[in-house]
Input
Amino acid sequence: MDQMIRMRGTGGVDQLEVVSCEPQAPGPGEVRIRHQAIGVNFIDIYHRIGLYPLAPLPAVLGVEGAGVVEAVGDDVADLAVGDRIVYAGAPVGAYATTRLLPRVRAILVPDHISPRIAAASMLKGLTAHMLFTRTYPVNAESTVLIHAAAGGLGAMLVRWSKHLGARVIGTAGSARKAQTAKMHGADHVIVGRNADIVSGIAALTDGRGVDFAIDGIGGDMLLKTLACVRPFGTVASMGQAAGPIPPISVDQLGPRRSLSLARPSIMAYSADPNTYLAASEELIAVMQAGVVAEIGNEYTLAEAGRAQTDLEGGRTTGSVLLIP
Output
């Protein structure tokens, strides 16, 4: 008997329950995947607490996973039982032993990339692709600020930035996490949750500021991040792990600062089939070159609540996985 983690309603992890279920038969344009690894991301927490509402409830969380094709719909001719695939994005439903998946979401995985690495890297890799190609074109002349550089997304962003030749300045909440960020390739790391990052960035850039800053922390941090970027630079606000973002007026962006503030969504980016396919192909190529996410913590499927609690509480590094 298979299992899924079902969310009864919005709220705490007590809303998650383990439910037994039978594998479903795929319909037209669908495949059934038996998961070997499932990614846990902050967007799952945002779904659970109702920041990004899911309807109808109950619902199964999770937006990325990797595994083996177990069955295909009658009209699916380009995938076969036994193929290794990975996916990310909508529709949600990854927290399960097996699930049905639209064929267009299934991306073939080369044999030498393990399902754990594939599941850990897919959503974060697509996010990096979106940020570095669509939001700001990072290259060897760029200086990039990456918050939470030892975290799952942060580590992938550091590695991809260095793959592009950029100079990377990270932030980390502790000396241990700072060391992890440097292992991923960060050139400099500003340490401490209450560190004066504005002064730190000014010192590291001779007062110029960074070209591109990626802020997944939210709360009061975004205003500090804006102060770390050079005139005509770009800030990407990617989440609010530290709480809601205070209102920002256009006067805080310019004209003196002349900043661009982006609020890109990986779910929106990956929703377009052509973008998703092209970005996935580029991601697989980058992964084959060695740019992959760091796996930090693994839990059983039934421990999904604990995995989310640890991620939300900052007790994880690297990518967080559920192993069915």
